[in-house]
Amino acid sequence: MKKLLAFTVLIAVSLTTMAQDQKIGFYESEVILEQIPEYEGIEQQLDVLSEQWQEEITQMEVEIRELEEDYEAKEVLYTEEIRGQRQQEIAQKKQDKDRFIAQKFGPEGEYFTRQRELLEPIQRQVFSAVSAIAERQNYDFVFDRTGDIYMVFANSEYNLNDDILRELGVDVENQ
User: Fold this and answer.
1) Where are the domains of the chain?
2) Sign (positive/negative) of CA torsion 160, 29, 44, 120?
3) pLDDT digits over 116-155, tens only?
4) Spatial contact of 72 and 64, defined as CB atoms under 8 Å apart
């Protein structure tokens, strides 16, 4: 649905451009972010956080596997009541692991919340740089080619990546 909407918008913009001789530019936010020194530090922080949580998940999985193996080895020795208790204990551990994964890596989890907090200032700077360039160079539309909008062709003349990086103070000549 998003792609259809983006395609429809792109067609409408193209038709409007032909009719009114408008200026369109594009940039790639991933390329821009990779060139900003602070971004690498943010990526490292998020990687460390992710690795810590992944270790906890692995430990939980080991514990669950050990409980399951122990249960299978001793199942015939257990009474019906103890079997139920052990099965419930294993199920609870699995639920705890799933809840932990959702809490840390789910759509509203700590990882994405932290990522938003860390990236927001940089994204604000990039948006300001794009806006300044668009106004200064009289662009009517500027697209971020990284997201859902897919361009079949884009003339590199209208690529604003270097202009945005210069606006952000990044030395593009040495990249």
Assistant:
1) 2-167
2) positive
3) 999 999 989 988 898 888 888 888 888 888 876 655 455 6
4) no
